C-alpha cells in the first residue's frame, strides 16, 4: 500500500473520530485517556492538525499516528477544518482529558497562547509541528523543515527553469527579461514568510538588475500573500493579473510557494489560452499528486518534496524523549524566535523535484506509485 493510500484510509477514520470530539466525546471516548503523570497507564499523545483538505496534512497525520501507535502510545488526533476556534476547542479538550504530550500543527501560530498556558499548568509538553507557535514561552520544541532553505530552493528552481542559472546554480549570463509573478502563502502561517524571504533572497537581485520583471508591481509579502493557501484565491488573483498586466505580454514564470497556489495560477493561465508550448515556469511545494502529474506532463516545472515520513519520525522521536523524561534532539537553537523565546528546533532537509528526478525521489522511495502520479490521484 502506498503512503498516500494509507494516508487516505487513516484520514477517513480519524475524521469520524474528530466529529465525535466536536460533540464532546473525543477521539477515543472518555476511557481513551488517563491523567498526565499516571505511569501505570498507557501514555496518550494529543495531535492537532490544521485541516485535511490538502494531501500533505492527511499524510502527516497518518504518519504521526502510525508512528506513535507503533511506539505503544495512544493517540488523540483531531483535524480543525482550518478553523481557529475549532482548533482551540480541540486542544482545550485534549488538555482536559489529560494527554501527556501535545503535537500541534497550528492554523494560526499566534492564536494558541491561552491553550498553551493551560498545557503548561497541567505539565503537558508541547511540540510545534512544521508551523511555529508564536507569542508564548510554553512551546517546548519545534520540528520542521529548513523553511528558509525551502524558499531558496523555490527561487533557485525558478531561475534554473528560466535558464538564468544552470543545473549547478551558476549564472548563465541570460539577461531576459522574463516576466514573473509571485504567489506567497497565508499571512497567518509563520512559515509563509520564511518561504517568501528565502525565495526573494535569490530572486530579488535579478528583479533589481532587470532580468526579471514583475509587471504587476506586486512584490511585497502583503501584496502577494494568499489567505488560507487557497487555490481558488490564487486562480482568481492570476485571472486579475492576466487582465491587468498580460493582455499583450506573456508571463514567463510563477514563483508559487506551494502546489495549490501553483495549480491555481496554472488553471487560470490555461483558461487564458496558455498551452504546454508557452506555459510559464511554475514552482510549488509539498509534492501533491495533482502537481506531480502536471510536472510529469510539463504543466508545472517543480515542487519541493518535504518527506512527511521523516518529519513524522522526528516528531514521534521527540514525543518519546519527552515522555521518557529526556530532551528531544536539537540541531538549531538560533533561527526560530517566536517573539518570546527562541524555540529549540530540529530542521530537516527538503528536495527539489522536477521531471528529471521525479521517479527517483517519489516512486523509487515508495512515497507514490507510478500509476498514482500518472493519474494524479491516490490508489
Give an overview of the whole structure:
The chain is of the alpha/beta class and 379 residues long. It has two domains: 3-139 and 307-348, 3-Layer(aba) Sandwich (Rossmann fold); 147-306 and 354-363 and 368-375, Rossmann fold. It has 13 helices and twelve strands. The chain has helices at 3-22, 55-70, 84-97, 113-121, 147-161, 190-208, 221-224, 231-245, 259-271, 289-297, 308-323, 358-363, 370-375; strands at residues 44-49, 74-79, 101-104, 126-129, 141-145, 178-183, 212-213, 253-256, 281-282, 303-305, 345-348, 351-353. It has a six-stranded parallel beta sheet, sandwiched between helices. A four-stranded parallel beta sheet has the order 7-6-8-9, sandwiched between helices. Strand 8 (253-256), helix 9 and strand 9 (281-282) form a beta-alpha-beta unit. Helix 2 runs parallel beside helix 11 (308-323). The longest helix is centred in the first third of the chain and has 20 residues, at 3-22. The chain is globular, with a radius of gyration of 21 Å. The termini are close together. Residues 45-326 form the Periplasmic binding protein domain. GO terms for molecular function: carbohydrate binding. This is Multiple sugar transport system (Multiple sugar-binding protein). Residues 1-23 form the signal peptide. It is found in: Cell envelope.
Measured as a percent range, the helix fraction is 40-55%
Question: What's the number of structural domains?
Answer: 2
Terminal-residue CA separation: 8 Å
* Average pLDDT: 90
Strand content is 5-15%
Main sheet makeup: 6 strands, parallel
The CATH class of the largest domain, by name, is Alpha Beta
Counting DSSP E segments of at least 2 residues, the number of strands comes to 12
What is the CATH topology assignment of the largest domain? Rossmann fold
What global shape is seen?
Answer: globular
Structural class by helix and strand composition: alpha/beta
Order of strands in the sheet with most strands = 2-1-3-4-5-11
**Fourth-level CATH superfamily of the largest domain:** Response regulator
**What is the number of helical segments per DSSP (H or I, 4+ residues)?**
13
Low-confidence stretches: 1-38
Order of helices and strands: HEHEHEHEEHEHEHHEHEHEHEEHH
CATH architecture of the largest domain: 3-Layer(aba) Sandwich
CA radius of gyration: 21 Å
Subcellular location: Cell envelope
Protein name: Multiple sugar transport system (Multiple sugar-binding protein)
Keywords: Signal, Sugar transport, Transport
Main location: other
Amino acid at each position: 500500500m502506498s503512503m498516500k493510500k494509507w494516508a487516505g484510509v487513516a484520514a477517513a477514520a480519524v475524521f469520524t473520530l474528530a466529529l465525535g470530539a466536536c460533540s464532546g466525546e473525543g477521539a477515543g471516548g472518555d476511557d481513551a485517556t488517563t491523567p498526565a503523570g499516571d505511569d501505570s497507564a498507557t501514555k496518550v499523545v494529543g495531535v492537532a492538525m490544521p485541516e485535511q483538505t490538502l494531501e500533505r496534512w492527511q499524510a502527516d497525520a497518518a504518519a504521526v499516528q502510525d508512528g506513535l501507535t507503533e511506539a505503544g502510545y495512544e493517540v488523540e488526533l483531531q483535524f480543525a477544518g482550518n478553523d481557529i476556534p475549532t482548533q482551540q476547542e480541540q486542544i482545550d479538550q485534549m488538555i482536559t482529558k489529560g494527554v501527556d504530550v501535545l503535537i500541534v500543527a497550528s492554523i494560526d501560530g499566534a492564536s494558541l497562547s491561552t491553550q498553551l498556558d493551560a498545557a503548561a499548568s497541567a505539565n503537558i509538553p508541547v511540540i510545534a509541528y512544521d508551523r511555529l507557535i508564536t507569542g508564548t514561552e510554553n512551546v517546548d520544541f519545534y520540528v520542521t523543515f529548513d523553511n528558509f532553505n525551502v524558499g531558496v530552493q523555490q527561487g533557485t528552481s525558478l531561475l534554473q527553469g528560466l535558464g538564468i542559472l544552470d543545473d549547478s546554480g551558476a549564472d548563465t549570463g541570460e539577461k531576459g527579461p522574463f516576466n514573473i509573478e509571485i504567489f506567497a502563502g497565508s499571512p497567518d502561517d509563520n512559515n509563509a514568510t520564511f518561504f517568501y524571504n528565502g525565495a526573494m533572497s535569490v530572486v530579488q537581485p535579478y528583479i533589481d538588475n532587470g532580468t526579471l520583471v514583475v509587471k504587476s508591481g506586486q512584490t511585497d509579502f502583503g501584496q502577494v500573500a494568499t489567505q488560507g493557501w487557497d487555490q481558488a484565491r490564487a486562480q482568481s488573483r492570476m485571472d486579475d493579473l492576466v487582465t491587468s498586466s498580460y493582455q499583450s505580454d506573456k508571463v514567463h514564470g510563477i514563483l508559487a510557494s506551494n502546489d495549490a497556489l501553483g495549480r491555481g495560477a496554472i488553471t487560470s493561465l490555461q483558461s487564458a489560452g496558455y498551452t504546454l508550448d508557452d506555459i510559464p515556469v511554475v514552482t510549488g511545494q509539498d509534492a501533491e499528486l495533482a502537481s506531480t502529474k502536471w510536472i510529469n506532463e510539463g504543466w508545472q516545472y517543480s515542487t519541493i518534496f518535504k518527506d512527511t515520513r521523516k518529519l513524522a519520525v522526528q516528531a514521534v522521536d521527540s514525543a518519546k524523549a519527552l515522555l521518557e523524561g529526556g530532551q528531544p534532539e536539537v540541531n538549531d537553537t538560533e533561527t526560530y524566535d517566536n517573539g518570546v523565546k527562541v524555540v529549540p528546533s530540529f530542521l530537516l532537509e527538503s528536495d527539489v523535484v522536477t521531471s528529471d528526478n521525479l521517479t527517483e525521489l517519489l516512486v523509487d522511495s515508495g512515497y507514490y506509485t507510478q500509476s498514482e502520479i500518472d493519474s494524479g490521484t491516490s490508489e
